Every structure is written in structure tokens, then in C-alpha cells.
Design the sequence.
């Protein structure tokens, strides 16, 4: 009988074939060179150009958001979305403990304090029931927006769910929590371009949503991100704040706020337009990969392949194995065996409340996030693998 690490190596090899395989690679098989060359030929490579407008229009059309504002990266998108949600210094913002550090960092950039909440093993995202139970014991109504955390005395202003590895979280449940406690809901949809929740694109159910087009995401602009919203005034303010808050004028340099230089350069947007054209193919390839892994891992009872939650369609950005509790102690042996043979695999992120900058932040009990963190292994997931 094979050891579990050997069996997992064999199951992955069955799907991806021989040779080194990365966790997630970008794929440039469309009009990328043409559009980027077009930018260079036009000299409009930077902060002005038609590809930015086109990318924003196409993102809005694809996601069904009324507006999309393209920015330099997903972290910048979250920063500005939180400012537009009204997050102020010394307020709290609820974020998952199980997320990429950018979610918490964006809260700190506003001078606010992240408050970490537990996960739902069915979605890998925030658990609305656990969150509601906790808030009912620690939160007091505040006059106006949000509620007051009785333990810290701070106002909790906003709720930032994240769609982990592309799987939509329980947005109906979280929207109900946001209504009960008067939070503004901002979706960190950095990982979930192409994922839908009850047929609506992730990032469009909250007041604002954000996307990332980093090199390891489902589509890439090199570096990039976007803010999604249906609110025309918020979209106008997002554009204004991310373009140095310059007041339009033929020549005068008037700026009516401390703005940011967060605009996406035209050359990145050109890459994005070409990538967006291929997104349906990328998604189809990722679903084929899921089906292949599903077959390959069917006989391994210690391992569950993460599948999209009912009612949702996942983009399957990263393919995720979840070990059963009894096999959690083999996680590092599995990471070693796979990486030793050239199969790039990665564990989940260290939970936010365990990172030095966030150790002193408030957090809910985190039994599910802690258990998932010990048992998750992400395996090669690029579009085009099968
Ligand atoms: C990728 C990512 C971001 C944004 O990342 P950038 O590299 O700044 O584009 C934010 N949140 C999560 C959960 C992510 O995975």
C-alpha cells in the first residue's frame, strides 16, 4: 500500500502528466501582443488611452456591474472601496481570518482595525451564522451606521467577505448580517472573476466589489485590479480618488482631495482586453481540470476535492484538496513530496490573527478556519493544463 503522499503525487501526475508544473501560470494565447504593440505604436502606454476605457466597459458588461473602475492592483482597489464605504480611522472592519493578507492590509491603510471572523467549511468563506451569533453577544446598535463592539468600544463599519480560491461564499447569509448590523458590504472578489452566486457575478452583490488581475489570477494585466459598483456616484468618486483627485480643467492643476495615483496604465489594460476575450476558454479549461482531478482523487478517501457550493458557479481559480482530520498531520509530508517532484503545491495562508502586524486585532473564535488551515493543499490549477 502506497503512502498518502505518494498516492497524491500519483493522482496529480495522472492528470497533469510529467515534468515540472506550476501552481498557476498566466496564458497568453490571444491578442495580447497585438494590443500591447498597438499601445506602443500610439505612444499611449501610461495613464491615458482607449484600452482603459474599453477594459472598464468590457468588465462592466461581463460582470453585470453598472460601473467598473480599473486600478493598479487588487489591494489598491480594496483600499479605495473601503474609503468609499465610509471606513474611517479607529473603526473596525470584519474580514475573514482565512484570506490573503491584502484584505487585512487594505483595512489598515484606512487607519481602521480588521476584526477576524471564522470560515464555513462548505464555502471556505465567512460563516454568516457564526458571525451573527457572535455579533449578537458583542455588538450594540450605534446611532447611524454600523454597530459598536462592546469589547473594544469601536464602531464596526463594514463587512468584507472574500470568495476563497474562486468559490462564492454565502452572500445571502452575509447580506442579512450586514442588514441586521448596518454594515456596508464590500466584496473582495480578487480571486473570483468568472464566479457567480445564484447567477449574479461575485463582486456585484455588495455595495462595492473588487477584482485583481495579478499574474497568478484567472486573467492578468501584469498587475491590476478593478472596483465594481452599481452606484454611479460611488463610481465617479472611485475614478476621481484613483486619479489624484484632479478637477477636470484644460490646464489648471487643481486637486480637491488627497487622491491616489492608482489608475491602471493603458498598456496593462491592453493586456486585460486580450485576456478577457479568452476568459470563457480559461473557465472551461478549469472545469475540465476539476473533472479530471475529481476522477483521479475519487479512490482516495482521506482527501476531498473542493467543489463549488450549491447555487454557485466557481471559476476554480485554484484547485484545492482538503485532507480529513486524521490525515492533517501528513500535510507537510505531502507538500514536500509534491514539490520535490516538481509539482508546485501550496498550503493555505497563515491565519491573519497569527501574523505579527495583526496579532493584537480582535477576532472571533476561529475553530473552522484553524482546522481548514491545517488541511488545505492547493494543487496545479492553470488554464490550459487539460
Ligand atoms: C490577489 C488578492 C488580492 C489583491 O491582490 P493584488 O496582488 O494587489 O492584485 C486581494 N485579496 C485577495 C484575497 C487576493 O487573493
Sequence:
Amino acid at each position: 500500500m502506497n503512502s498518502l503522499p505518494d498516492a497524491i503525487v500519483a493522482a496529480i501526475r495522472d492528470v497533469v502528466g510529467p515534468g515540472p508544473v506550476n501552481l498557476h501560470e498566466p496564458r497568453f494565447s490571444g491578442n495580447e501582443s497585438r494590443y500591447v504593440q498597438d499601445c506602443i505604436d500610439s505612444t499611449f502606454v501610461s495613464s491615458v488611452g482607449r484600452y482603459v476605457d474599453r477594459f472598464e466597459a468590457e468588465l462592466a458588461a461581463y460582470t453585470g456591474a453598472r460601473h467598473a473602475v480599473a486600478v493598479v492592483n487588487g489591494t489598491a482597489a480594496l483600499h479605495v472601496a473601503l474609503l468609499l464605504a465610509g471606513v474611517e480611522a479607529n473603526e473596525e472592519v470584519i474580514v475573514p481570518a482565512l484570506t490573503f493578507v491584502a484584505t487585512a492590509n487594505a483595512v489598515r491603510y484606512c487607519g481602521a482595525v480588521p476584526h477576524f471572523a471564522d470560515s464555513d467549511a462548505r464555502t471556505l468563506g465567512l460563516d454568516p451564522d457564526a458571525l451573527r451569533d457572535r455579533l449578537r453577544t458583542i455588538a450594540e446598535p450605534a446611532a447611524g451606521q454600523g454597530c459598536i463592539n462592546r469589547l473594544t468600544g469601536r464602531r464596526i463599519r463594514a463587512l468584507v467577505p472574500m470568495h476563497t480560491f474562486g468559490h462564492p461564499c454565502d452572500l445571502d447569509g452575509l447580506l442579512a448580517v450586514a442588514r441586521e448590523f448596518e454594515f456596508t458590504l464590500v466584496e473582495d472578489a480578487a480571486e473570483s472573476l468568472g464566479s457567480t452566486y445564484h447567477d449574479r457575478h461575485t463582486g456585484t452583490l455588495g455595495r462595492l466589489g473588487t477584482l485583481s488581475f495579478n499574474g497568478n489570477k484567472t486573467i492578468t494585466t501584469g498587475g491590476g485590479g478593478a472596483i465594481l459598483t452599481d452606484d454611479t456616484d460611488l463610481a465617479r468618486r472611485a475614478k476621481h480618488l484613483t486619479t489624484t483627485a484632479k478637477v477636470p480643467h484644460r490646464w489648471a492643476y487643481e486637486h480637491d482631495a488627497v487622491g491616489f495615483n492608482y489608475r491602471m496604465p493603458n498598456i496593462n489594460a491592453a493586456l486585460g482586453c486580450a485576456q478577457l476575450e479568452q476568459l470563457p476558454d480559461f473557465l472551461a479549461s478549469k472545469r475540465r481540470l476539476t473533472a479530471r482531478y475529481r476522477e483521479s482523487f475519487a479512490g482516495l478517501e482521506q482527501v476531498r476535492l473542493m467543489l463549488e457550493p450549491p447555487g454557485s458557479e466557481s471559476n476554480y481559480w485554484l484547485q484545492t484538496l482538503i485532507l480529513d482530520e486524521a490525515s492533517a498531520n501528513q500535510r507537510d509530508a505531502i507538500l514536500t513530496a509534491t514539490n520535490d517532484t516538481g509539482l508546485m503545491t501550496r498550503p493555505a495562508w497563515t491565519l491573519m490573527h497569527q501574523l505579527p502586524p495583526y496579532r493584537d486585532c480582535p477576532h472571533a473564535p476561529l475553530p473552522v478556519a484553524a482546522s481548514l488551515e491545517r488541511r488545505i493543499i492547493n494543487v496545479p490549477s492553470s488554464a490550459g493544463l487539460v
